[in-house]
Structures are given as structure tokens and as C-alpha cells.
Write a structure and sequence with these properties.
Elements: E1 4-8, H1 21-34, E2 38-40, H2 53-67, E3 74-76, H3 82-95, E4 99-103, H4 112-125, E5 130-134, H5 136-139, H6 145-151, E6 157-162, H7 169-177, E7 186-189, H8 195-200, E8 205-208, H9 215-226, H10 230-246, H11 254-262, H12 282-295
Parallel strand pairs: 1-2, 1-8, 3-4, 4-5, 5-6, 6-7
Helix pairs in contact: 1-2, 2-3, 3-4, 4-6, 6-7, 9-10, 10-12, 11-12
Length: 296
């Protein structure tokens, strides 16, 4: 089971848009030393939509090799083409990823039966653990709890990152999977601002954007809740909420990438159609991260 603060890792880039490999290595080391519980390379926060397949797989392989088994690597291998998702998942499995995160097919807007068959086909073609990813605001389709319940009975499907915007979906998912024979199926928050509420309902952690800029603080928050120290978890969550809000002031990962560049942790590149963070937001992003980082 994957638990705790799992970073939805940004992909560092030079101003030219080329991947900054040395900066990627350094970010990984920072996360490991900061207590991050897992790393997702090439999720949507990693700009998977604008990296070609070769780059995509290179980032996954580089991350797996650099982590070297110290924490789990959950490779983002989703696509709106089932054949491409199968290919990327097979390649990530061959590269040594511990699990794969697969977003629902975007733009196609498949039916629930189509979604079921999509993920079933990927599971049938691979043996790596599969984590579903539901984020309707980004994809235009919603993986319904009943479909999650069906998928929980498919061998290899182990959990879901839920980002539908309604924390109560956690309870609906657990109701749907009851009796499916997969008692270890887990839910991870995909909404930083709702993680505390979702963990109260049974989620076991988060795949987090905020963890990019405050890895130690997100790790401490998740660990406190998982260890039963609810009072500390609530206090840390209150400190982190302003950051959860500001890292989405423009389309993610724009604010997080700007903040990391501002910290000197990587160059400031980002790929079109995303552009660098508007100057009007610079001071607020910097201040909120600094305050949360110093008060935790």
C-alpha cells in the first residue's frame, strides 16, 4: 500500500524547454532527504502532456535509477489512447517503477463501460500495480465510484488518486469496493486542500503538488495523521492551506515551478502552452511558501 506524502513531481526544464537532468537529480535527492514518502514522475504536474514519449520514459527511468529503491516511484503512464497507455506502462514496468498512475482518458469522454475496459486492458497487459487517477476538471470525464468498485476486483488495480473536488467521494468509493475482495485497495487525495478531510474519511495520503515546494512539511502532516496525532495534523494543515491555494493561482504546475526556480532549486523553464507565472503573483507565492515553511 502506498501511503503518506507522495510528490507529483514537476519536470525541471531549462529556459529552452529542454529537460534539466541535473536539476531533476537534485530535486529527487531533496525529496528523499526531506522525508517524502513517494515520487510520481510524469504525472500531469510533470507536464506529461507536452513531453514526447521518449522524453516521458527517460524521465521515469532517470527517476527510478536515482531513487534506487529508497522510496516508491509511481510512474505516470496515462494516455487517452489505450494502446499508448499500455505501451508506456509496460516500459515503466521494465524500467523498474514500483507502480503506475493512470489518469482517465482525457477529451474522449468515454462511457463508464469504456473506462472500465480501458483500465482492464492495461491491467491485463502488465503486472505492475496500477493506481487509477480521477480528475474530472482536467479530463472531462468522471470515474464513478461504481466503476472504481468494479475495477477494484481487477488483478493489479490497487488504488486511486481521487481529485473530483468532493472529499465525500472517499466514502462513496469505499462503499463501492466493499465485498469486491480487495480489502487493501487504497485512496489517495488528489486535492491538497482537501487532504485532511479525505484522510479523516479513510484516505491514506496524498499525491501532492504542494509537496514540490514544502516536502518536509507535507511529509510531517501526513505522518502525523497516519500516526494518530490528529491535533498536530490539523495544526500543520492550517499552516499549509494558504500554500495549497496559491500553488493553483495559475494553471499547475506554473506556480510551483516558478517557486522552485525562485528558491534556486532548478531553472525556470516551462513548455508552451503554459507560460511562466505572471509577475503580479510572484510576491504572494514567495511569501506564503516562506511563512508556511518557517512556521511548521
Amino acid at each position: 500500500m502506498l501511503t503518506g506524502s507522495i510528490v507529483a513531481l514537476v519536470t525541471p526544464m531549462h529556459e529552452s524547454g529542454e529537460v534539466a537532468w541535473d536539476a531533476l537529480d537534485e530535486l529527487i535527492e531533496w525529496h528523499v532527504s526531506s522525508g517524502t514518502h513517494g515520487i510520481v514522475p510524469m504525472g500531469t504536474t510533470g507536464e506529461s502532456a507536452t513531453l514526447d514519449t521518449e522524453e516521458h520514459l527517460q524521465v521515469i527511468k532517470r527517476t527510478v535509477d536515482r531513487v534506487n529503491g529508497r522510496i516508491p516511484v509511481i510512474a505516470g503512464t496515462g494516455s487517452n489512447a489505450t494502446a499508448e497507455a499500455i505501451h508506456q506502462t509496460q516500459e515503466a514496468e521494465a524500467a523498474g517503477a514500483d507502480a503506475c498512475l493512470l489518469v482517465t482518458p482525457y477529451y474522449n469522454r468515454p462511457t463508464q463501460e469504456g473506462l472500465f475496459r480501458h483500465f482492464q486492458a492495461i491491467a491485463d497487459a502488465t503486472s505492475v500495480p496500477i493506481v487509477l487517477y480521477n480528475v474530472p476538471p482536467r479530463t472531462g470525464c468522471d470515474l464513478a465510484p461504481a466503476t472504481v468498485g468494479r475495477l477494484a476486483s481487477v488483478e493489479g488495480v490497487v488504488g486511486i488518486k481521487e481529485a473530483c473536488g468532493d472529499a465525500n467521494r472517499v466514502s462513496e468509493i469505499f462503499q463501492a469496493i466493499a465485498g469486491q475482495g480487495n480489502d487493501n485497495f487504497f485512496v489517495l487525495s488528489g486535492e491538497d486542500a482537501q487532504t485532511l478531510q479525505m484522510m479523516e474519511l479513510g484516505a491514506v495520503g496524498t499525491i501532492s503538488v504542494t509537496a514540490n515546494v514544502l516536502p518536509a512539511q507535507m511529509s510531517a502532516f501526513c505522518a502525523a495523521h497516519l500516526n494518530g496525532d490528529k491535533e498536530r495534523a490539523v495544526a500543520l494543515d492550517q499552516q499549509l492551506q494558504p500554500v495549497h491555494e496559491i500553488v493553483f493561482v495559475e494553471s499547475s504546475p506554473t506556480p510551483a515551478k516558478w517557486a522552485l526556480a525562485d528558491m534556486g532549486r532548478m531553472p525556470g523553464g516551462i513548455r508552451l502552452p503554459l507560460i511562466p507565472l505572471s509577475p503580479e503573483h510572484h510576491q504572494e507565492v514567495r511569501q506564503r511558501i516562506q511563512i508556511a515553511g518557517s512556521s511548521s
